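Write out the 3D structure for:
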Amino acid sequence: MNIKPIKTQEDYNATLSQIEKLMDAKPNTPQMDELEVLTTLVEAYEKQHYKIDAPDPIEAIKFRMEQEGLKQKDLVPIVGSKSIVSEILNKKRKLTIEMIRNLHKELHIPVESLFLDYKTNCA
C-alpha cells in the first residue's frame, strides 16, 4: 500500500483509478483498508476543489417538494395562502422567519438552507 496525499489533478485521477480497482475488496482485508483510506483522501480533495454551493432556499423547497411529490397547494398550511405560496416559489416574496420555522418543522428542510439570502424577481 503506497498512499500519499492528493495534491494535483493527476494524483486525483490516479487515486480514482486505484479506488475502482479496489471496489470488490472483501471486508477486513488490507485491500478494504486501502479503499477506505483512499476514499477519505478523495473526499477531502473534492471538498476543497469541487465545492458545491448550497441551493438557494426556494430551490431547496422545490427539491423537497419533488422528493415528497408535493404540489403548491400542499404548502398552503405551512406557508399561507395559495397566492403567498405562488409568490414565494416565483421569488416575488421573501420567506419570513415563521415560514422558515414551519418549512423546517414540516418538510425537514435544514434551517441553514432556508436562511440563505436570495434575490427576488421584483422590480
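The chain has two domains: 9-49, 57-114.
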